[in-house]
Amino acid sequence: MKKSLYLICFFVILYGCKKDDESSVEVCPGGCNSEYKITSSNATLDSNGYWHVLHGGINYFTIAGNLSQLNSKYIVNGVPLIEANFDSDYWVIFDSIQYTTPMYSYLGWFTNNQFNNPISIGSYTYTLKGLAEIQPPLNISGYQLNKHMCWDCPYTPTLFGTHSKYTYTPHQNFFFDNEMIGDTARIYIQTIFNSDTGPSEEENSLLKVVFQ
């Protein structure tokens, strides 16, 4: 009788400690959805789904998102485990402009004995094509991939795109200068609902942009 009682207690404890089946838990109650739009005042959306962004003297435009609320299981200390990743197919490459800058020697001459006004020892002309080797091409979403990056490292995927985490209203600025007027671009956005361990959902969005 005593052995049977022990067995009953064991199964009661085992059942009480059994974890919830996470596969049956909704990541977002009612479904996970994301909505993104360009919030700059000089941007409009046409009937064909293209955003027209006018250059108004400021060299960027802003994309803002509105995301579904997560299940409370995936909110830690009030912080939702949610992530938005931004990328584009538009790269800025410098190739023709040049400028000249004075060069100074750390052992050079100065115009006064306070050593705060150095005399140039000559000049050097930089082409922006040459600078591109020092400063790699820029993706308008705000990242660069330089020639020294490790393509096989585990962290490499995190180097692509820019990221906004732990908010239901992500914002991202994109580079836009007047040299881009007349071009088009595609903005790719990946939204991950529950970016930690456990079940997650992913949504991919595309914004088509015309620069004017």
Q: Your description of this structure?
A:
The chain has 212 residues and is mainly beta. Helices cover 11% and strands 37% of the residues. The chain is built from two helices and 16 strands. A six-stranded mixed β-sheet has the order 2-3-16-15-7-13, with no helix packed on it. Strands 1-4-14 form a three-stranded antiparallel β-sheet, with no helix packed on it. Strands 8-11-12 form a three-stranded antiparallel β-sheet, with no helix packed on it. A hairpin with a 2-residue loop joins strand 5 and strand 6. The protein starts with a helix and ends with a strand. The relative contact order is 0.24. Mean pLDDT is 80; it is low at 5-15.
Which labels suit this protein?
212 residues, six-stranded mixed beta sheet, 2 helices
The H/E string reads: HEEEEEEEEEEHEEEEEE
In round numbers, the mean pLDDT is 80
Helix content: 10-25%
Q: Could you say which overall geometry the principal axes of the C-alpha atoms support?
A: globular
Rounded to the nearest angstrom, the distance between the terminal CA atoms is 85 Å
